[in-house]
Amino acid sequence: ETQCNDCGDNYTNKLTDKPLLTCQLCLQGSHNCPKVQERFEALNEVPETLRLIGMVWLCSGCLKKNNLSLLPVSATTPAEPPAEEELAAEDEEEEEEEEDDDPPQA
C-alpha cells in the first residue's frame, strides 16, 4: 500500500491492474484517480518525439526514500505564469543592465 501523490488517498495495485503511470525506480503503478488521469492525458498531448525527454514519474514511497519530496512538481504539471508585475520588473532590470553595458559616448 502506498499513498497517491496527487489525491493523498492510500491505494494498492493488484497484479491484474493496468496503472496509467509506473514508478521509474520501484515499478509501483499509479493510483488511477481523476488527478492522475488528468496528468496522463496531459502527457499524451505532448508530441511523441518529446515524451522520452524528462518524463519520469516516481511514487510517493520512492520520493520519500530518496528525499525528493522537496523538489518542484514534475514538468508535466503546468507552472503558474508569472504575474504582469513580475514581468514588468524583469523588463526594467534588463533595460537597466543594457544601459550599464553601453560605453559612454563623446
If you had to describe this structure to a student in words, what would you say it looks like?
The chain is mostly helical. It is 34% helix and 4% strand. The protein is built from three helices and two strands. The longest helix has 18 residues, at 84-101. The mean pLDDT is 75.
Summarize the structure.
With 106 residues, the protein is mainly alpha-helical. It has helices at residues 34-45, 60-65, 84-101; strands spanning 2-3, 10-11. It is 34% helix and 4% strand.
Characteristic terms for this protein:
single chain; 106 residues; mainly alpha; 3 helices
Strand content: under 5%
Average of the residue pLDDT scores: 75
What is the N-to-C succession of helices and strands?
EEHHH
Largest sheet: 2 strands, antiparallel
Instruction: Give me the Rg, rounded.
Output: 21 Å
Parts with pLDDT < 50 across at least 5 consecutive residues: none
Shape: elongated
**What is the number of helical segments per DSSP (H or I, 4+ residues)?**
3
Give the termini distance in whole angstroms: 74 Å
- Main sheet strand line-up: 1-2
Name the helicity range: 25-40%
The strand count comes to 2
Layout of SSEs?
Blueprint: E1 2-3, E2 10-11, H1 34-45, H2 60-65, H3 84-101
Antiparallel strand pairs: 1-2
